[in-house]
């Protein structure tokens, strides 16, 4: 049973890594230059917007894309144990990207499709993204608590993966419901793209605590 569970976790982690790299690369390719950014349907459908919005979107897409693409590396145990300097370097980069992505996300939330409820959903995501990063850094820098640092980073990366689930739910809404206008879907997707992720993170954290507890008892 334990071997089967480990195999499932390994496959799930592999799928997560693949999706993170794919979406991260997509963000860099499609939004990495001003020409590509201005041609995206998501952008052209917004109508007339302040010049600042385009700059903020570029910074958000690049920072969030990089964070998503490298964040999963932090959960590789061998990397943490055998190459701690690389682990810290990736952590510094990831934290910088999340800070930029979270702050720019707050600005972009005010312009989100789907009305005020969607704007609140995306705004809440950005606030929690920044808060979980703060708690993870505090736990390792101030408290020197590696276990708590890991738990908060799991929560943070689960929120980072909203970039993945948002695109999955948007595609599902188009295929199964025929809804292609995000004004019709984002009032729901703005919440379900991250709340289930966070709940799964809590389940994972709880299971890890129980497993650790059983190991200590033995």
Automatic annotation (TrEMBL):
Membrane spanning stretches: 12-32, 52-77, 89-110, 116-137, 157-179, 185-205
Superkingdom of the organism of origin: Bacteria
InterPro entries per record: DUF2306_membrane (IPR018750)
Membrane is among the record's keywords: yes
Metal-binding found in the keyword field: no
Keywords: Membrane, Transmembrane, Transmembrane helix
Protein name in UniProt: DUF2306 domain-containing protein
Organism: Paenibacillus alginolyticus
């Amino acid at each position: 049973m334990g071997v089967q569970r480990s195999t499932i976790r390994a496959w799930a982690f592999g799928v997560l890594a693949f999706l993170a790299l794919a979406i991260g690369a997509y963000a860099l390719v499609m939004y990495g230059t001003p020409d590509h950014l201005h041609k995206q349907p998501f952008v052209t459908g917004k109508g007339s917007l302040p010049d600042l919005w385009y700059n903020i979107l570029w910074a958000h897409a690049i920072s969030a894309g990089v964070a998503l693409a490298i964040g999963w590396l932090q959960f590789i145990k061998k990397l943490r144990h055998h190459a701690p300097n690389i682990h810290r370097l990736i952590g510094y980069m990831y934290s910088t990207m999340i800070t930029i992505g979270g702050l720019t996300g707050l600005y972009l939330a005010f312009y989100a499709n789907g009305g005020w409820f969607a704007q609140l959903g995306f705004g809440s995501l950005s606030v929690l993204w920044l808060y979980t990063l703060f708690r993870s850094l505090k736990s390792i820098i101030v408290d020197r608590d590696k276990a708590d640092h890991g738990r908060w980073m799991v929560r943070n990366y689960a929120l980072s993966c909203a970039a993945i689930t948002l695109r999955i739910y948007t595609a599902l809404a188009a295929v199964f419901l025929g809804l292609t206008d995000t004004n019709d879907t984002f009032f729901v997707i703005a919440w379900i793209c991250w709340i289930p992720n966070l709940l799964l993170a809590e389940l994972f954290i709880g299971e890890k605590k129980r497993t650790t507890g059983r190991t200590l008892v033995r």
